[in-house]
Structure of LPS export ABC transporter permease LptG:
Amino acid sequence: MQLDFFPSRTLTLYLMRLFVTRILAVLVMLVLVLTMLDLLSESGTILQVSGNGQAQLLAYASLRAPQLAKTFLPYSVLLATLITLVTLNQNSEVVSMKAAGLSAHQILAPLVLAAVVVAGFSFAFNERVVTRATATLKAWQSVNYGPMPKDSAIKSNIYTSDGTNILSAATVLGTGNAMHMQNVTWYKRSPDGMIQQQIRAPGARYAAPGWLLTNATSFEVQSAATTEIPSIVVGTDITPQQVDLARIDPDSESFWHLTQSISRYEAAGRRTSELKAVWWHKLSGPLSSVLMPLLGSVAAFGLARSGQVFMRALIGMALGFGFFVIDTAALAMGDFGGYPPFLAAWGPFLLFLMIGETVLIRTEE
């Protein structure tokens, strides 16, 4: 049975095909251009490392491209909406559809359906590809584009405390008793917080208790003396579980993994509002694509010969980019507790959903 909310099956498929092909075209163009610009800015740093060459440049591009695709997919949906609707308007196809008895909502329904499919694909792509690429790229950057870590469970730039002392590591790989660190620094501090001794080592592994540093170099602040230490155990009160909780990068964790991380933080009595805001945004972010046909719909209506199509397209673009600005600002407010996590993630979506629906009803329905 044909649902009244959608036009005919042929027209629905026709509009969806136009919309999806334009989304892909705009997304590919944006990702290619931005990847090349980003690669140009980072290529000097990558090639400074001995042994790096074209393979490393391609590896960087392959890790950066998924991040750019995630960021600019909603922009691509917005631009594709404007291109599709302006083209339909200029070819008088919108007038023909309205003359056939279709309402504005029925004309937009195939585009919204396509956007829902795009949002589902975006969520799956973020979970399976973007989080892993982000974790690998950050771990690679933490070693200044040196030999790329091969472990999948990677944490970077970790700081943990043992009383007044601090243990830091550029990267942490593995879990539990098999956890080991790379580029480790141990800061021994006085009770008033002054650094007394600094010990650096290329790696450390869990010694149960403490962390065993090998081939370390010690620097005494008071005497300015440097000595070589074959091995030393530090941080006897620091456990792998504390290292796991030392830092959570929500951009590098999938939705389900982040759920578990938030539970561990709450069990340890740690603040989780920032993590919860990002957790909610992993759902609302992909769904922002569904808003774009509604916000850009103002470009579909009005007579092309009236000369106002360009102005309507600008209004649709302004509404879309206004959403992105407010969404970013609300997420930043949620990061430091200014907004509740749910409001920070879903507030802009619900606000612009009402704005888009109001504009469509007042102008066309």
The chain has two domains: 9-144+278-364, 164-169+183-236. DSSP finds nine helices and six strands in the chain.
